[in-house]
Amino acid sequence: MSSSRRLYRHADLDRILNPGSIAIVGASPRAGSFGERLQKNLADFEGRVFLVNAKYQELDGLPCYPSLSALPEVPDCVAITVPREAAEPAVREAGELGAGGVILYASGYAETGKPERVEEQKRLTALAREYKLRILGPNCLGIANYLRSARITFSEYPHFSHPQPESVGIASQSGALSQSLAQAIERGMSVSHAFSAGNQADVDVADLVAYLADEPSCRAIACVFEGMSNPERLIEAANIAWAADKPLVILKIATGEQGAAAAMSHTGSLAGSNAAYIAAFERAGAIVVDDFEALMETAAFFAKAPRPKARGVAVVATSGGAAIMAADKAEIHGIPLPQPKPEAMAILESHIPDFGSTRNPCDVTAQVMNAPNSLGACAEALMGDDDYGAIVLPQPVAFDFHTPRIKVFSDLSQRFGKITCNVLISDWLQGPASREAEMDSHVAMFRSMDRCFATLAAWHKREAQRSSPLPPYQRVAPMAAAGEAARLIDDASRHSTLTEREAKNVLALYGVPVVGESLVTDEEAAVDAARRLGYPLAMKIESPDIPHKTEAGVIALNLKSESEVRAAYTKLMGNALKVASAARVNGALLQPMLPPGAEIMVGARIDPLFGPLVVVSLGGILVELLKDLVVAQAPVSPAEARDMVGRLKGVAVLQGFRGSEPVDLDRLADIVARLSEFAADQQSRITELDVNPLICSGQRITAVDALIVRKSN
Question: pTM of the entire structure?
């Protein structure tokens, strides 16, 4: 597939994905054949089906034509069920006739890795370009368009769906996973389309997302994919969905990070390719989920949910244990559970026995079975409270008595313009009331308390992005810094890494505050430098072969006397010579010890697909252990950088934790933005950057160590 091809939009794909007529090339009476199964799957198709096979004149009472050219009209969609060896002529004939598109089921193309098969797939791509013919596949399982009852597949997609206004559209690279997601229909979910792309010789998963973004029959998109050689196409499709205000819920599988294992910096090992995908999708406004099981639940929620009226959530449980579970997950995902206002509290107190709880989360107890109207009264009181934008209704057991409750909560949700989240935590996942909840336009069904609150958090995050978008990027560092930094990198020692001193000199050009230092090459020089700099001091060995000093034992901190300086110099040099040759050891750096403060790591990595990425994490020696990090595509504005810092789980460390001086987060964000600009400017020269740590206390923020890894020639 050509990386320069524009993204297909709705009008480009409508004939193949929403056909009025379908031709089956390779139609057959043989039971179990692709042609026979496809014809059966189209029994309810609301359009015209043409059979093509020169061996037969009639099949099942329908005329069978010898070729596509013999058909009474040019078909919108040509489904080619013949083997790979016979497929290419049929594709060409479809193109010559002006068909809308081809679905090619045959496998054995580029997925085999064989050069001759790769070339066969390239020829299909060339035919698509030559005839402006849209091709799904090869190695494609097919698609289902439930608006037309068109299951254009030889396999099994769910047979029946009446798409509702809150339908979900599915876009998948994998046909089997497309089928798997579409089976949500069987439990009552509304699905408008289920697409699969196969080998993507022409139409790819990004095109399918773009089509659904423009498709009025679905309110949300569920996308699962493995990877793309041109992921910017999928980002462009995500931007189209964002512009259409259509939630895109996306899952990337194949998230292994073997490529990060060889990275020299903390950043390189932490910010692998999956982190790059997530950062790019989040910037485009997509909702990223980590688990396959979360994909359709989350998409169905976004298809049903209105815009949130408040961040607070009320929990109405009939079980104290379920209420506690909800409180635990709300805390994990940062969902506020404010207490009811006095008006609502009075109603709760009149209906909830004293062995229950009127606090949020509310435990109305099993007593509601004896007073069925009390649950609705409590729910109405909470729905009417302006502090709540959603109600969570845990369902500990799946029994018939829960079914009427769905309508009660649905009616209230519709009346107040809020969403009810029904969380079935019973192990009877498809038990009573589950289908009713799935089919209800105002109730979102979850089978995990964690997924429910994670989705609510994503709902609030998306609303914040839409209502208060971050200001556009504006450069912070002077443009002249880029050229001067490039010169210093090119002129620095010709090693794979710049020394710490060289790296800090480069970053200082961007306005990054760095600690002062002195390079010494013998013990006496170290003592003299210590007198000039003043105690206490840090000592580090400088060598391009020792990027991680702590692990190599070549760093000493808090040196307070001449004797400590001498001893440290001897010890550190001895350790350095165990891992590097004398010719590769430049000497020792002496630096003033900074007062203690919070430690932050800021880094960058040049991703082969997404370009420069900037990473913010809690710093010091625990950076890779804690893995509390936020990744974004570089460059970022100070406002974006401030948002990144705020998303750290350990942000409390920067906010005056246990009496420490709060860090000037705007100043920190400015430094992060400058470092991101460095990464973007120098992406042709470097592969990785680590500034670890930045020691932060109040307005004083200083880089005390830095590592820059060159790009190999």
Answer: 0.89
Amino acid at 145: N
3-state secondary structure of 704: coil
**Which amino acid appears at position 106 of this protein?**
A
Largest CA distance in the chain: 102
**Token output for 410:** 């649905």
Strand-strand pairing, 191-196 and 142-145: antiparallel
What is the third-level CATH fold of 598-710? D-amino Acid Aminotransferase; Chain A, domain 1 (3.30.470)
Scanning the structure block, which residue is given the tokens 């909830």? 352
Tens digits of per-residue pLDDT, 600-618? 999 999 988 888 999 999 8
pLDDT tens per residue across span 646-694: 989 888 889 887 777 899 999 999 999 999 999 999 999 999 999 988 9
The string of DSSP letters for 202-258 reads SS-HHHHHHHHHT-TT-SEEEEEE---S-THHHHHHHHHHHHTT--EEEEE-----G
CATH superfamily of 10-300: NAD(P)-binding Rossmann-like Domain (3.40.50.720)
Q: Is 167 within 8 Å of 218 (Cβ atoms)?
A: yes
Provide CATH 3.30.470.20 ranges for the chain: 598-710
Quick check: 87 and 104 in contact, CB under 8 A?
yes
Q: What is the CATH number of domain 516-593?
A: 3.30.1490.20
Mean pLDDT of the chain: 92
What sections of 480-587 are H helices per DSSP? 480-491, 500-508, 523-533, 549-552, 562-579
Q: Fold for domain 306-467?
A: Rossmann fold (3.40.50)
Say yes or no to pLDDT of 132 above 80.
Answer: yes
